[in-house]
């Protein structure tokens, strides 16, 4: 929960930590909506476009005996983000913004934290100079003398620096969505392929969905057939095969890592050459083939099929149904709880798998799965700039599909797990 809230913050590492960042305050939502429209965009997705006229107010606390000084207004030439986004070309609002004079609009005597003084409000307006250029953001810096303390503004600042002398905004015409979900927008906007120009984060999500979806389908098909065969069919070596499956579940993945790698490197003993691939490394084919079906899925399906009454199959045999007909028309429809449990567990396992995709998929970055892509985010943001906001946002996005799948199939999951322990 705290990591989710921190993903909305400008500085997730702030100390002491807070659970009420500015992005969660309704007054800032209203301000972001109004400023986004004033900037020439929509209230939900703001911008700085021709015709923009942005009115902004800021209030300072001035101690008694000190003369109030209007803030110095600057529109900085600030890049959009860190990592790859820091070098991505784009227009700067500073080249198209015109700032009015700063005007004092209000003074109010007040005592703040035991210190007497006054609250002084200043107002100014920022226009677009009319050139046919639309900028997606309008940053702002305000500077005041020491001891003149920031109190409030039309929109809360993203940072207060230089011992309180400088108040800084990443964008004062954000719109509600980019303001609240700033780090989430950065994850999609700042990560792109320098060779193809494609959005990397979307590509990582597509790759993870594709690999997880294919592995779920293959697991359901193979595990259901293998589980039924082990539970109901009589053939030589059935018990030995089941013991072999149980034994495979006891072996850690680290033990078989090198052998699996060599099998993929050689193209499954050269069989991959039949469809034109010398090696299965750095390919989705190799990643999918190495995870077609797990022993735990076969075990769950076998235990479930053994819990079904044999009378159903015997009645079908009396009516002339064969094993294939019994399996597809009678047994499989009754296996929805177990299939749901297997689907959830398989999807979760493949979606969250990190080590094996990191070894198999190397280049280009477009081929990475989402978990491997998050490692790239850590290197781009966390290791270099200590900018953990996009990394936390990416981690939360990666958890959403698993949460949704579990919610959608929760009933089947609970039923399937309960049935796997029942026999007779």
The overall strand count is 9
- The CATH topology name of the largest domain reads MetI-like fold
Shape: elongated
N- to C-terminal separation? 43 Å
What's the architecture of the largest domain in CATH terms?
Answer: Orthogonal Bundle
| pLDDT < 50 stretches | 420-424
Number of helices: 16
Structural class: alpha+beta
Q: Nearest-angstrom radius of gyration?
A: 30 Å
Strand/helix succession: HHEEEEEEEEEHHHHHHHHHHHHHH
The fraction of residues assigned to DSSP E strands is 5-15%
Helix content: 40-55%
Describe the structure.
With 424 residues, the protein is an alpha+beta fold. The chain folds into 2 domains: 2-174, no CATH class; 200-420, MetI-like (MetI-like fold), CATH 1.10.3720.10. Helix content is 47%, strand content 13%. It is built from 16 helices and 9 strands. The strands form 2 sheets. Strands 1, 3, 4, 5 and 7 form a 5-stranded antiparallel β-sheet that branches. It has a 4-stranded antiparallel β-sheet with strand order 2-6-9-8, with no helix packed on it. Helix 5 (200-232) packs across helix 14. The longest helix is centred in the middle third of the chain and has 33 residues, at 200-232. The chain is elongated. The relative contact order is 0.12. The model is unreliable at 420-424 (pLDDT under 50).
């Amino acid at each position: 929960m705290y990591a989710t809230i921190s993903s909305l913050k400008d500085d997730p590492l702030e100390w002491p930590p807070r659970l009420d960042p500015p992005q969660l305050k309704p007054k800032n939502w209203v301000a972001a909506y109004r400023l986004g429209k004033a900037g020439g965009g929509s209230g939900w997705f703001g911008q700085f476009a021709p015709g923009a006229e942005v009115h902004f107010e800021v209030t300072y606390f001035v101690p008694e005996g000190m003369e109030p000084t209007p803030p110095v207004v600057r529109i900085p030439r600030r890049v959009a983000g860190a990592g790859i986004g820091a070098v991505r070309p784009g227009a700067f609002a500073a080249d198209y913004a015109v700032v009015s004079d700063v005007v004092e609009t209000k003074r109010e005597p007040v005592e703040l934290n035991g210190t007497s003084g006054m609250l002084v409000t200043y107002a100014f307006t920022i226009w677009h100079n009319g050139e046919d250029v639309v900028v997606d953001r309008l940053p702002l810096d305000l500077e005041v003398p020491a001891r003149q303390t920031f109190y409030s503004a039309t929109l809360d600042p993203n940072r207060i620096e230089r011992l309180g002398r400088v108040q800084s905004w990443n964008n004062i015409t954000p719109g509600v969505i980019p303001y609240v979900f700033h780090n989430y927008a950065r994850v999609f906007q700042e990560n792109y392929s320098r060779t193809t120009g494609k959005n990397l984060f979307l590509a990582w999500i597509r790759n993870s969905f594709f690999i997880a979806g294919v592995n779920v389908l293959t697991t359901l098909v193979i595990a259901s057939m293998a589980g039924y065969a082990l539970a109901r069919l009589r053939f030589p070596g059935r018990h030995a095969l089941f013991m072999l499956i149980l034994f495979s579940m006891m072996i850690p993945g680290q033990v078989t890592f090198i052998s699996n790698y060599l099998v993929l490197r050689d193209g499954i003993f050269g069989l991959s050459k039949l469809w034109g691939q010398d090696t299965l490394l750095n390919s989705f084919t190799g990643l999918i083939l190495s995870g077609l079906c797990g022993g735990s899925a076969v075990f769950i399906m076998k235990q479930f099929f053994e819990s079904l009454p044999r009378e159903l199959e015997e009645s079908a045999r009396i009516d002339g149904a064969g094993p294939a007909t019994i399996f597809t028309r009678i047994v499989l429809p009754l296996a929805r709880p177990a299939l749901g449990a297997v689907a959830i567990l398989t999807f979760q396992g493949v979606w969250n798998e990190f080590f094996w995709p990191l070894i198999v998929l190397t280049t280009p970055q477009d081929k990475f799965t989402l978990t491997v892509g998050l490692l790239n985010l850590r290197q781009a943001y966390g290791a270099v700039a200590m900018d953990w906001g996009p990394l936390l946002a990416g981690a939360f996005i990666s958890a959403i599909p698993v949460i949704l799948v579990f919610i959608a199939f929760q009933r089947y999951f609970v039923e399937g797990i309960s049935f796997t322990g029942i026999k007779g």
